[in-house]
Write a structure and sequence with these properties.
lipid metabolism, INPP4, hydrolase, alpha/beta
Length: 756
């Protein structure tokens, strides 16, 4: 470029005899002929180009910002030249996704607080408990609102630097999130694209790690909550999750049913048979889902528990559970297999009619049946004039059939009102009972449960932001790959995280946070929709533990998708995490500390990976994926990964290489993470890139180390360091690097003292 930053005026080709430090013993393989040793690096500062060429798409450029591009030329084993374009870009999603999530948290928490207030009159003990819970929840709600307001003021860069990881106002934002891309053009091989998402490990840095991370904190909290006698009823995590699901279904289905009922009446007023049939079909489907949601023992038990919490209720035995040590085995109601532990803590009262609830929600089904019968009669009479009026009538016990000679609207209106009234009674009772369950959950763990919820929200926000970025980029690159698209809607998407955290001191807490955050991504579903405007940013809906991400594509790209995806099929994610600490702190953990955390995480995620592979082999044809029948078959790679995890070898980076290879062969999304995605991550992604060039694109074996040093010295990752700490130095020193595996050490002159 010109000196004033104007247009590009040319390129500079640098021929190097020596690039970086040679590994010991390699000099014998390098000839003295400088022509054979030529490696060319063309530095390219083309920020205005964006993700150029076929990647230059409005929908992709909507989420990618400030690209850094480098061009390389390396020799192949047959003395040809390969060209490599290395790119790095930050993403607008770094702030968009967390803001969307926090906004959903605020709405969800406000709705929950209102549901607690709507419980009605409670006995003094329960009422005081409710007031305490609402007060704590209001404080948490205020904090979320303040955080959202602060994020709304943010302008400038679309990424959070490593130096800002401890800032409270930015704690929901992922650290140093970037796309790292390598585009390879080989003389005799097909062009190839390789993507890795680099991001700091999802962790609550502002909260700190004095007491560990989420994995340890959640386990400890649940054990204390289960084993300590509280002045409330204990519901298991599964039951509280079920209560949240029931409430969510109510809030989702009730307005839908009401809307479809109104459409039914509108069709009736227009006397449109086809429209009436369609409206009835939709109304029936949603009402059946609504009724099914309440066929659960938890709802019945919670209604009984709420009854005993009303003022003036005289109990045969106290509602407060005894300590678990005194209780012995859980007691279950003889008529129903209980889903609630310590069922004897929920009293039974002779005046409470347990069958009343069955009658209430059964009335919804009966009302729907009356409506269906009436519509059938109206349509039949409309089409066949000589049908007897009494045929196919519902029984008089179920509904009162009106004379069918009059207006359709007039005859359907009272039945619709009855359906809505019955549904309203069910909603009121079910909402109160499930809100009472959530009251127990919150009251039994104040304030720790809210603190843990905050921490989990922070970690999940960081993890989800990276996942959304990875999914969108993978979708764009795979739009013309029919095998990938079939795999996406048939099996789901594999998302593989490579962790480089140690299991020593604070990084162990980070790893515990990261493990839970990535595991929580299993509950996220994706849906691809056609964009209706020029705004291609994703839309997030749902609640905690059940989010749907709607990814928008332009019409021309949307048409390339299989019919199943176009019709809105939800796409599953299969996140897996494999961690191998590589720094000097991991040396301390291996010799004097404990590596059990890493071993357990790797073993657990190996099982998840095997589960995904099993689904893949069951649901996909064997010739679907281009890599499936390669010499290094997936089954052998999985077995090798299993053996390496079982071996418990120190700093066994073979685990990461195998996991990454399996992920690529299964069309997955790759992530690489360390504390800040700056130094160790840079060593890992550059090693991965050069390994791919060697193994897949015939990079000359004598130039592997030179290419590796070249990328680390002059490539995109040193630019990432500069973006984060305003210095072109990886934050390593000589003593630290002595503990690093051989191929994870940067070349001389590229490391030294730097703030991180």
């Amino acid at each position: 470029r010109t000196s004033d930053g104007g247009k590009t005026v040319g390129t500079i080709e640098v021929n190097l005899v020596k690039m970086g430090e040679l590994e010991e013993g390699e000099t014998d393989h390098i000839t003295a002929d400088t022509q054979d040793q030529k490696c060319a690096l063309v530095r390219e500062c083309t920020a205005t180009e964006g993700m150029s060429g076929k990647d230059n798409l409005p929908s992709l450029n909507a989420v990618l910002r400030n690209p850094v591009c480098k061009l390389y030329r390396f020799p192949t084993s047959d003395n040809k030249w390969m060209r490599i374009r290395e790119q790095m870009a930050e993403t607008t999603l770094s702030f968009h996704v967390p803001k969307e999530l926090i906004n959903l948290h605020i709405k969800e928490d406000m709705r929950r607080n209102q549901e607690l207030k709507d419980l009605g009159e409670l006995a003094p003990h329960w009422d005081n408990m409710r007031k305490s819970v609402i007060a704590h929840c209001d404080q948490m709600l205020s904090m979320y609102q303040d955080t959202l307001a602060e994020l709304g003021k943010h302008t400038g860069s679309s990424f959070k630097s490593s130096c800002s990881k401890g800032e409270k106002t930015l704690e929901f934002i992922p650290i140093n999130l970037h796309l790292q891309r390598m585009h390879v053009h080989s003389p005799r091989l097909k062009d190839a694209l390789y993507d890795v998402i680099t991001v700091g490990a999802p962790a609550a840095h502002f909260q700190g790690f004095k007491n560990g991370g989420l994995r340890k904190l959640l386990s400890k909290f649940e054990a204390e909550r289960r084993n300590t006698g509280y002045q409330c009823i204990y519901y298991s995590p599964e039951n509280t999750a079920k209560a949240k699901e029931v409430l969510s279904n109510i809030n989702h289905l009730q307005p839908l049913i009401s809307s479809h009922a109104d459409l039914l009446l509108s069709s009736a007023s227009q006397r449109s048979p086809d429209s009436l049939k369609n409206s009835l079909k939709m109304l029936s489907e949603k009402t059946e889902l609504f009724v099914h949601a309440f066929k659960d023992q938890l709802v019945r038990s919670a209604l009984l528990a709420l009854y005993t919490a009303r003022p003036g209720c005289v109990l045969k035995k106290p509602a407060v559970p005894r300590n678990s040590a005194e209780e012995g085995d859980d007691v279950q109601h003889p008529d129903h297999p209980s889903q609630i532990k310590r069922q004897d803590s929920i009293p039974h009262h002779s005046e409470y009619d347990e069958e009343e609830w069955d009658r209430v929600w059964a009335n919804v089904a009966k009302s729907l049946n009356c409506l269906i019968a009436m519509v059938d009669r109206l349509l039949e009479k409309d089409s066949i004039s000589d049908v007897k009026e009494g045929e196919n009538e519902p029984s008089a016990a179920d509904c009162k059939v009106l004379h069918t000679g009059g207006d359709w609207y007039e005859q359907l209106y009272p039945l619709v009102i009855t359906l809505k009234d019955c549904m309203g009674e069910v909603v009121t009772r079910a909402k109160q009972s499930m809100a009472f369950v959530l009251l127990q959950e919150l009251a039994c763990g104040l304030p720790q449960c809210l603190t843990l919820t905050l921490r989990r929200d922070i970690v999940f926000s960081q993890a989800l932001t990276g996942l959304v970025c990875g999914f969108i980029i993978k979708l764009h690159t795979g739009l013309h790959d029919q095998g990938f698209l079939q795999q996406l809607h048939t099996v789901g998407l594999l998302v593989q995280y490579e962790g480089l955290l140690s299991t020593y001191s604070e990084e162990a807490g980070m790893l515990e946070d990261m493990a839970v955050g990535i595991s929580d991504l299993q509950k996220v579903m994706f849906k691809v929709i056609e964009a209706k405007s020029e705004d291609f940013l994703p839309i997030i809906t749902g609640r905690r533990e059940h989010y749907i991400i709607e990814v928008q594509l332009p019409g021309t790209m949307f048409e390339l998708l299989p019919q199943e995806i176009k019709e809105g099929k939800l796409l599953r994610m299969y996140p897996v995490l494999f961690n191998v600490g590589i720094n000097e702190q991991q040396t301390l953990a291996e010799r004097f500390g404990d590596t059990t955390l890493q071993e357990n995480i790797n073993q657990e995620n190996l099982e998840l990976l095997k589960e995904y592979y099993k689904l893949f082999t069951e649901k996909m044809p064997p010739d679907c994926l281009p890599h499936f029948q390669e010499q290094n078959d997936l089954k052998g790679l999985l077995e090798s990964l299993h053996q390496n995890i079982q071996a418990k070898k120190r700093k066994n980076v073979e685990i990461m290489w195998l996991a990454a290879t399996i992920c690529r062969k299964l069309n997955g999304v790759r992530f690489t993470c360390c504390k800040s995605a700056k130094d160790r991550t840079s060593m890992s992604v550059t090693l991965e890139q050069c390994s791919i060039l060697r193994d897949e694109h015939q990079l000359h074996k004598d130039f592997f180390i030179r290419a590796l040093d070249c990328m680390r010295r002059e490539g995109c990752r040193i630019e990432n360091v500069l973006k984060n700490v305003k210095c072109r130095k990886y934050a390593f020193n000589m003593i630290q690097l002595m503990a690093f595996p051989k191929y994870y050490r940067p070349p001389e002159g590229t490391y030294g003292k730097a703030d991180t």
